[in-house]
Input
Amino acid sequence: MTRAPNSHRFDDRGSIGSARPGRIGVVFGGPSPEHDVSILTGLQAARALSSSSQAGFLRSLYWTKTGEWFEVPNGLEASDYLGGLPKGATPLRLAVGADGGFLAKRSGRFSSKEEPLDIEVLLICCHGGPGEDGSLQGLLDLCAIPYTGPSLPGALLGMDKLAFSALMASAFLQMLPRAPLDAALPAPEFAGPYIVKPRFGGSSIGIDVVSDYESARARLGTNPHLRRGAVIEPYRPELFDLQLAVRTYPELQLSAIERPLRSGEGREILDYADKYVGSEGMTSAPHELPAKVSEEVEAQIKKMAPEVAALCGVRGVARIDFLSDGEAVYVNEINTIPGSLARHLWIDPPLGFAALLSDMVAEAVARPAASFSSAGADGSVLRVAGSIGGKLA
Output
């Protein structure tokens, strides 16, 4: 990957340079149940950046359901991905290392060689799976490529519902009880009915409401989304969803509070279809924005949201989900790369999508998610180590 002389690199003294945000790659797709929603977010972001005077040079990078990488033309529509790979796609290879990055295979008349893509920073629009659980973030850290959104630890924490709830509880933030669900474990101390959720996942995919613990355990063998782990918590039918977006760069800022609405009478939970199956994802999903809540509920949410953001090390923009009965407020979970990057929530204060993206890119360059240093590895341990054979005796 070609970079300016002052770009983000490994440094044996523990320092990292900065890059001027100009050559931006928008990354979307990926081997995730939320692949299609990720495409929509990526296309929206690329379109908004392409019309921005701050965009500079823009490339669209598509991650397929099978884990392959391609550069695709800018300006495509969602329908161009219905048949799989869109026309005009160029195969890419992602190489790890201090000078790693995306390499494109260019075929000429007499030779075929790989050339680095000229990109300085990546805008990540991948929802769920390896694009949001830290896998992609760790790979980009090893490639020394600045990127938007959560760091590896922040991504993993946001995707792990059990670890997230334990962290919130340690900070004395109010949550419903949550426990691991495993066939070898006894029933939790709290009574049913229960909500069963994938431990690693988001967007209400794979969530079930069950009446008793035996029914919950039976879901482990029938629900494919629970194979990597599951959690269980009490189902409280009187609770409703409230959410807001948060960003910490260039300063801490909270969006308006939204109340997503369920699509039909008697619906037990807000599911994937309620959130995303619409012409514009959550922007067009049924909702109340701003939410009609009491001053007390609003105050509780706006007090807890910055604490959650600080505990999770929020980068870019995140969406924090709460539950409420109209009086009490409970932290539910955090979405570290929300659908459409939660752009529709920024009505108070008003914030345009292009400005939101520009700030995310600027943060990625100014505050790299990770830096690696070999400072302190001066050979002193090796000099006194003696023989390896002696250590094994």
User: Anything to note?
Assistant: Residues 23-149 form a domain with the Rossmann fold fold (CATH 3.40.50.20).
